[in-house]
């Protein structure tokens, strides 16, 4: 049966002619399962990347109550971001596990887009599965869909006009939304040189990883598996794959 497997996909290199990105995800640790190594590459090129956590992942550790967990996970994400050259992490503190796609989520994300004015907006996979029958998580799907809308809402002064005070202006400059580790990825970025930073960044989620109780689970081995398969599609050792949603007509 093994020789019946399809050939690995072939990826286009992601464009790198941009200066700033906003990476919006549901939970602390979402970026670290593959994308952080790409962030390390980009910050190393002098690009600015800001993280936005829609929740604080406070419902993520079975043995720790949400009020206690929130602070632990926010601190872990700030440390994790610092490893890959990101010095600003925004926490929206919406409720973990029960996010709903809709106007309120779009409004919250549009505000951050207007404040940071990125060239590219990023998130993680928000398709129904991670490929095969590995179901995605509801918060990831809600955030990705809302981000696609919010980057367009942010450019329209008549949508969420109450945000346009104290000098805040519409921002219609987001050129694309990129979703990391999508099963429909078409592009990838070479992270061979920043793989180690990606591993260190994931290891910062110590309380969370301990809380999962996965005996013998190794962050390096895990990321090597994901990023090596991305690398095959780009002809390099390690790469992070992204699905690209271009905005506008171009
Ligand atoms: Zn998550």
Structural account:
With 250 residues, this protein is an alpha/beta fold. It has a single domain (14-246), classed as LmbE-like (Rossmann fold, 3-Layer(aba) Sandwich). Helix content is 36%, strand content 16%. An eight-stranded mixed β-sheet has the order 1-7-8-6-5-2-3-4, sandwiched between helices. Helix 4 links the parallel strand 5 and strand 6 (176-180). Helix 1 (36-44) packs across helix 5 and helix 5 runs antiparallel to helix 7 (219-234). The longest helix is centred in the N-terminal third of the chain and has 18 residues, at 66-83. The protein is globular. The site of zinc ion (ZN) has 5 residues, from loops.
Structural class: alpha/beta
Query: Biggest sheet: strands side by side, in what order?
Result: 1-7-8-6-5-2-3-4
Q: Sketch the major β-sheet.
A: 8 strands, mixed
Write down the overall geometry.
globular
Radius of gyration from the CA trace?
Answer: 18 Å
In DSSP terms (H or I, runs of 4 or more residues), the helix count works out at 7
Average of the residue pLDDT scores: 95
Strand content is: 15-25%
What is the β-strand count?
A: 8
Number of folding domains? 1
In CATH, the topology is named Rossmann fold
Q: Strand-and-helix sequence, N→C?
A: EEHEHEHEHEEHHHE
Uncertain parts: none
| Name of the level-1 CATH class | Alpha Beta
Termini gap: 42 Å
Bound compounds, each kind once, are:
zinc ion
Query: Into which percent range does the helicity of residues fall?
Result: 25-40%
Q: What's the architecture, going by CATH?
A: 3-Layer(aba) Sandwich
- The H-level CATH homologous superfamily, spelled out, is LmbE-like
């Amino acid at each position: 049966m093994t020789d019946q497997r399809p050939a690995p996909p072939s990826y286009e290199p992601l464009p790198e002619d941009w200066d700033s990105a906003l990476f919006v995800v549901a939970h602390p640790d979402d970026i670290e399962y593959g994308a952080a190594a790409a962030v390390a590459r980009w910050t190393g090129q002098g690009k600015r990347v800001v993280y936005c956590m829609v929740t604080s992942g406070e419902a993520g550790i079975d043995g720790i109550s949400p009020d206690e967990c929130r602070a632990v996970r926010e601190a872990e994400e700030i440390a994790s971001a610092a490893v890959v050259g990101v010095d600003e992490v925004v926490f929206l503190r919406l409720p973990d596990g029960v996010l709903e796609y809709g106007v309120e989520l779009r409004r919250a994300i549009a505000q951050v887009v207007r404040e940071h004015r990125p060239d590219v907006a990023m998130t993680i996979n928000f398709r129904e599965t991670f490929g095969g029958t590995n179901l995605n998580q509801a918060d990831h799907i809600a955030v990705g869909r809302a981000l696609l809308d919010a980057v367009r809402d942010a450019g329209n002064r008549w949508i969420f006009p109450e945000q346009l005070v104290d000098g805040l202006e519409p921002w219609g400059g987001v050129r694309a939304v990129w979703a990391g580790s999508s099963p429909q990825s078409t592009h990838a970025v070479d992270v061979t040189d920043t793989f180690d930073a990606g591993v260190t960044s994931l290891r910062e989620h110590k309380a969370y990883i301990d809380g999962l109780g996965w005996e013998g689970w190794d962050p390096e081995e895990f990321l090597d598996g994901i990023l090596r398969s991305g690398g095959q599609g780009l002809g390099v050792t390690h790469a992070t794959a992204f699905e690209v949603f271009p905005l506008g007509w171009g």
